[in-house]
Amino acid sequence: MFVVINGVVDFVVIFTRWIPFWVFRSSAHTPQYVNYLGRVLPPVIFGMLVVYCYKDIDFLSPSYGTPEILSGICVVVIQMLFKNMACSILLGTGLYILLIN
Fold first, then answer.
1. What is the pLDDT of residue 27?
2. Where are the transmembrane segments (predicted)?
3. CB-based burial, 46-69: b 16+ in 10 Å, e otherwise
4. Cα dihedral 47, 52, 56, 57 sign
């Protein structure tokens, strides 16, 4: 039974990954709305992630949210300097872990 469920889930994931390539072939013109969504959605998603990450900060605790705020500033500064998302996320996470321990 596990093999069947795993096979169905694998097929659905692969099928949903292939749909955009079938619908928007290279010879067809991509609609302007899809181009607009591709340009606008990534910053919106990152904004939602920032709100999600900072929503549970307790400013009345003894640390006053200092580790979260400092690591967020670290991520922004490293991203502006190096333009490398993996580097900024890893270093920001490392700083956060250092500050909470």
1. 67
2. 6-24, 36-57, 69-99
3. eeeeeeeeeeeeeeeeeeeeebbe
4. negative
Sequence ranges of the domains in the chain? 2-100
Cβ-based neighbour number of residue 91 at 10 Å: 18
* CB-CB contact of 14 with 8 (8 Å): no
Q: Which residues of the chain have pLDDT under 50?
A: none
d(CA 61, CA 64): 5
C-alpha to C-alpha distances, 50 to 45, 67, 75, 88, nearest whole angstrom: 9, 15, 11, 14
The answer to whether the CB of 95 falls within 8 A of the CB of 71 is yes
